[in-house]
Automatic annotation (TrEMBL):
CDD domains: LDT_IgD_like_2 (cd13432), YkuD_like (cd16913). It comes from the Bacteria. This is L,D-TPase catalytic domain-containing protein. SUPFAM superfamilies: L,D-transpeptidase catalytic domain-like. Residues 264-386 form the L,D-TPase catalytic domain. It comes from Micromonospora chalcea. Residues 1-23 form the signal peptide. Residues 44-64 have a biased composition (Low complexity). Pfam families: Big_10, YkuD.
């Protein structure tokens, strides 16, 4: 297994392409995570919300004063990521928000679960005038109403891009994390604002959390345990127009709705040189394997199948060690790290599989087992490797499950309630 390093990211508008750059087990430059390509997904968004702020209740029998709306009446150059909030004298609950353009076109939206603000269902338009009317019920029993007209900013010139590694109408394995990627990375002081605009809903409901890695270039979302079979995951990175401290703005919202399939898990034990394959909790096959030799060990940890190629070519000629340079045709390749580790068929090592490690870091299986396994797996299926000389490096692949839950939530930019954050709406 060669060295692991991440590719520098230069981004256009990015949705993860179906094909990721391929290299062999040796890693090196060819084994790095691919840079963004045209046609991928993007980023942005800071909340303009403010929670209801109880103040002195109205006195006497006079009608209550109007509630205060944010953005304020006459506000200009508001981000298109703006949310609507209101302050009711004495406290209370917002019951209705009506937002429309000057020609009367209504804007759909939803109130956050905590009642702090109303979130438009899509980014607002640049350079556009909006009027909002908010109605609420005060603790004093009175009905309050407020109106505000504001204008959004012109489209900014400096943008930041992002990727969402999830596709609509696809079925994934139970360990599929929601992966958001940013280029350039999000500074620590901006991550809470960005995270507040990254919405994940699951059906059936399962709490979760975000975890930031790689200097803010990547964030994972997962639940405390693997997703339940049959779960629907709906994601919106509502980040268009988010103002960041580096002077850039998010350029577009991205969303996806995907399904989680059957529970399929692979566990590899270096001590026995065997892979145990389970489906829906039942062991269905045990396969002999050959892992990375001592000079190029396989990574120990829980990884996720990120890409599948029935036939490809591993090219590790950029490896610093001449002994690890080769060009080889490979069948039934399944990528599990950015650094070049795969599960794949290796007919040349079938004689030692189950007995000795001879690979450059990949999980070698026989041609027959490789074909069978390839036909069973989904992107997002977990593989746990135990007992090797190398520990899986954070960010070397979709490493969300290589951390305990307590370690994972420690990487959130916002507080996470015990057991995980509920859905935002």
């Amino acid at each position: 297994m060669g060295r692991f390093s991440r590719a520098g990211a230069t981004v256009g508008a990015l949705v993860l392409t179906a094909s990721l750059a391929l290299t062999g087990c040796g890693g090196g430059d060819e084994g790095k995570k691919p840079a963004f390509e045209p046609g991928q997904q993007q980023v942005g968004g800071v909340s303009a919300s403010a929670p209801a702020d109880p103040s002195a209740a109205p006195t006497g029998g006079a009608p209550a004063a109007a509630l205060t709306v944010s953005p304020a009446d006459g506000a200009a150059s508001r981000p298109v990521s703006t949310e609507i909030s209101a302050r009711i004298p004495g406290g209370g609950t917002v019951s209705k928000v009506v937002l429309a353009t000057a020609d009367g076109t209504a804007v759909a939206g939803r109130m956050r679960r905590d009642g702090s603000s109303w979130v438009p269902s899509a980014a607002l338009k640049y350079g556009t005038k909006y009027t909002v009317t908010v109605t609420g019920a005060g603790k004093d029993g009175q009905t309050y109403e407020g109106t505000s007209t504001f204008t959004t900013m012109a489209k900014p010139k400096s943008m930041i891009g992002s990727g969402l590694y999830l596709f609509s109408d696809k079925t994934y394995g139970v360990a599929m994390p929601v992966v958001a990627e940013f280029s350039p990375g999000i500074p620590k002081k901006d991550r809470a604002a960005v995270q507040k605009r990254m919405f994940v809903q699951t059906d059936p409901p399962q709490p979760g959390a975000w975890h930031w890695v790689d200097n803010g270039t990547q964030a994972y979302y997962r639940a405390p345990e693997y997703w339940k079979t049959g779960t629907t995951i709906t994601v919106r990175l509502a980040l268009a127009g988010i103002p960041l401290s580096n002077g850039r703005y998010g350029n577009i919202d991205r969303s996806a709705t995907a399904k989680i399939g059957r529970a399929f898990e692979m566990t590899v034990d270096n001590a026995t040189k065997r892979m145990t394959v389970s489906e829906n909790g039942t062991v269905i096959r045990t396969l002999p394997v050959s892992l990375g030799k001592k000079s190029t060990p396989s990574s120990s940890g829980t990884m996720v199948v990120m890409e599948k190629k029935e036939s490809t070519v591993f090219d590790t000629r950029s490896e610093p060690d001449p002994a690890n340079r080769y060009v080889t045709e490979i069948d039934f390749a399944q990528r599990i790290t950015w650094g070049g580790e795969y599960i794949h068929a290796a007919p040349w090592s079938e004689g030692v599989q189950g007995r000795r490690n001879v690979s450059h870091g990949c999980v070698n299986v026989s041609m027959a087992d490789g074909r069978w396994l390839f036909g069973k797996t989904l992107v997002g299926d977990p593989i746990t490797v135990k007992g090797t000389e190398r520990r899986l490096a954070p960010g070397n692949g979709w490493t969300a499950w290589s951390l305990s839950w307590s370690e994972f939530v420690a990487g959130s930019a916002l507080p996470v309630p015990e057991g995980g954050q509920p859905a935002p709406f």
